[in-house]
Write a structure and sequence with these properties.
This protein is an alpha+beta fold. The chain has a single domain, classed as Roll (Bifunctional nuclease domain), CATH 3.10.690. Helix content is 28%, strand content 35%. The protein is built from 5 helices and 8 strands. An 8-stranded mixed sheet has the order 6-5-4-7-1-2-3-8.
Length: 160
């Protein structure tokens, strides 16, 4: 089963300095952190903030190419967690109505989903397998810890 999520926020891992995307279940308080590269985090942040670069960035180019080829991005799904690596697919439909699935890193799929205004899903098995899944209750119980900084932006309120 797949669970629809929204981007709750972006933050930096205080230990490694690596950006993290926080995905939140739209029907519960379950959250899933996914560590991403700096470039992908920047691409996601630009779209969240609705900052338009002078020239198309890679994810804009990909969206434009998909549209020009007559396809439509329907949704993205974080499908698997294997050896601490997340996997995703971009689900599209071509002009003839045929389904197309494209393997992707979750960070690229999410950056594209924001640009295509399509939903993001996570396979329920991924949430169960993730040792890093947290709920608001767990977060509140550890609020006294200075280990995790505040989330950048209020992404539960971020546009999708």
């Amino acid at each position: 089963m797949e669970i629809e999520v929204k981007i709750r926020g972006l933050m930096m891992d205080p230990n490694s300095g690596t950006p993290i995307i926080i995905l939140k279940d739209v029907h519960s308080e379950t959250m899933l952190p996914i560590w991403v590269g700096a470039y992908e985090a920047n691409a996601i942040a630009l779209e969240i903030e609705k900052i338009t670069p002078q020239r198309p960035m890679t994810h804009d180019l990909l969206r434009n190419m998909i549209i020009e080829m007559g396809a439509q991005i329907e949704r993205v799904v974080v499908t698997e967690l294997r050896e601490n690596t997340f996997f995703a697919v971009i689900e599209m439909r071509n002009g003839a109505g045929d389904a197309l699935m494209l393997d992707s890193r979750p960070s690229d799929a999410i950056a594209l989903a924001l640009r295509a205004d399509c939903p993001i899903f996570v396979n329920e098995d991924v949430i169960r397998a993730s040792r890093n899944t947290v709920s608001d209750d767990e977060e509140e119980s550890s609020e006294g810890d200075d280990e995790w900084p505040d989330i950048i932006g209020e992404a539960g309120d971020l546009p999708m």
